[in-house]
TrEMBL record:
Example GO molecular function: metal ion binding
Basic residues: compositionally biased ranges: 34-44, 84-95
Gene Ontology cellular component annotations, sorted alphabetically: cytoplasm
Domain of life of the organism encoding this protein: Eukaryota
Record protein name field: Methionine aminopeptidase 2
Keyword annotations of the record: Aminopeptidase, Cytoplasm, Hydrolase, Metal-binding, Protease
Catalytic activity as recorded in UniProt: Release of N-terminal amino acids, preferentially methionine, from peptides and arylamides
Biased composition (Acidic residues): 9-25, 64-79
Length: 465
């Protein structure tokens, strides 16, 4: 679940409604050794511009999304003239190509087990004479720390590549008139194939959010929900993938009507501002202030009326840890908040929400999102149905979020009373949809970042956003 809702203090209620740096390090060291043998001097420089230029071709899987050539991926037609799926294509002596729609696991597309980098950024300079941000890039000590965590980074990059390819497919797939269940099932089925779902080792990290218009977050359709994505809707597509509990939390806003372009632009700009501001030793409250300044500099005209885009002040970004989507630290999107600092090797979801309404959300509509309490102690259960449902949750989701559709998929039946019992006892927490005032429109963008010792990696960045 992407959004972390926080309570608003009463006094605020009246306020206005790369190629891999690691690869460069290793190759750089090899070059130094070779040139020492030749008695030549070697300059050791790691230049982020070069890293970004190289990683631009890799961050979205390079050519992994190219369409298979006709001669190797023939399209067969049956008697009805319907096109069948293209066959998998493999270049002679090369790695396999992704199908369209995507169906080949990311691990198969990268047989060397090295997955594309995200966007590499320098850390912001804190203080006029602080050179530590730039020094991190060339520090041998920081490079060594980077290497120590490379296995973790690689797992996160695998989850990120599965997210990128899934969302890029779904952006092409969505059409006005589709039901939300149809969209969610297509997205989730695709992501499961690409991540190579394997119990709690690999899979979806939380239910697909597809919140419409005034609903900002935490809505996914329950069974039988016939809600349709209409031409004039603003929908936030928010989903997560994970490998061994290493979560990618990433979201975008999808619209068909261009009249919402300014709203979408404001929120995308605000999210990118938050990403640029984030870094080791940066205060969380300083990030929120910069996000709000950018967000609320935008206006959008809808049906002849002009609205200032407002940051939704009781929604936040958050830190992420293994199998724990909300790991304790919050990243505000308005000024104020905690003076806590970000730390080395932390993972964060930087997300922002903009609204044409009050800029405050509240619980509304039927609940669909649930998650086992990460810190819950042992609680004795008297109802056999509650014990059975908890076993299903532990086996299939652990402390990852889930929804009622996923309980259905796991084979649970007649679980409503048991689910309520688990919630009442604090074993499971419910997360109802979060809504601003009816008639307004909300938008969201979100990325997962890694605060590596040497640099900041926007691991979920793609060509789309």
């Amino acid at each position: 679940m992407a959004a972390l809702k926080t309570e608003i203090p009463e006094e605020q209620e009246n306020e206005k409604d790369q190629d891999d740096v690691e690869d460069e390090i290793e190759s750089g060291r090899t070059d130094v050794t070779k040139k020492k043998k030749k008695k030549k001097k070697k300059k050791t420089n790691v230049i982020l511009d070069e890293a970004n230029a190289t990683s631009d071709t890799n961050k979205s899987g390079g050519d992994a999304l190219e369409e298979a050539p006709a001669e190797n991926g023939e399209v067969e037609n049956d008697g009805e003239g319907e096109k069948k799926k293209k066959k998998r294509n493999r270049k002679k002596g090369g790695k396999p190509k992704q199908t369209d729609p995507p169906s080949i696991a990311i691990a198969e597309l990268f047989p060397d087990g090295v997955y594309p980098l995200g966007e590499i950024q320098e850390y912001p300079i804190i203080g006029k004479d602080d050179r530590s941000a730039k020094d991190r890039i060339t520090s041998e000590e920081k490079r060594a720390l980077d290497r120590m965590h490379n296995d973790i980074y690689n797992e996160v990059r695998l989850a990120a590549e599965a997210h990128r390819q899934t969302r890029q497919h779904i952006q092409r797939f969505i059409k006005p008139g589709m039901t939300m269940i149809e969209i969610c099932e297509e997205l989730e089925n695709t992501a499961r194939k690409l991540i190579a779902e394997n119990g709690l080792k690999a899979g979806l990290a939380f239910p697909t959010g597809c919140s419409k218009n005034h609903c900002a977050a935490h809505y996914t359709p329950n069974a039988g929900d016939k809600t349709v994505f209409e031409y004039d809707d603003v929908v936030k597509i928010d989903f997560g993938t994970h490998i061994n509990g290493r979560i990618i939390d990433c979201a975008f806003t999808h619209t068909f009507n261009p009249k919402y372009d300014k709203l979408v632009e404001a929120v995308r700009d605000a999210t990118n501002t938050g990403i640029r501001a984030a870094g080791i030793d940066v205060k969380l409250c300083d990030i929120g202030e910069q996000i709000q300044e950018v967000m609320e500099s935008y206006e959008v005209e809808l049906d002849g009326k002009t609205y200032q885009v407002k940051s939704i002040r009781n929604l936040n970004g958050h830190s992420i840890s293994p199998y724990r989507i909300h790991a304790g630290k919050t990243v505000p999107i308005v000024k104020g908040g905690e003076a806590t600092v970000m730390e080395e090797n932390e993972f964060y979801a930087i997300e922002t929400f903009g609204s044409t309404g009050r800029g405050v959300v509240h619980d509304d509509m039927e609940c669909s999102h649930y998650m086992k309490n990460f810190d819950v102690p042992y609680v004795p259960l008297r109802l056999q149905s509650s014990k059975g449902l908890l076993n299903v949750i532990n086996k299939n989701f652990g402390t990852l979020a889930f929804c009622k559709r996923w309980l259905d998929r796991a084979g649970a039946t007649k679980y409503q009373m048991a689910l309520k019992d688990l919630c009442d006892k604090g074993i499971v927490d419910d997360y109802p949809p979060l809504c601003d005032i009816k008639g307004c429109y909300t938008a969201q963008f979100e990325h997962t970042i890694m605060l590596r010792p040497t640099c900041k990696e926007v691991v979920s960045r793609g060509d789309d956003y």
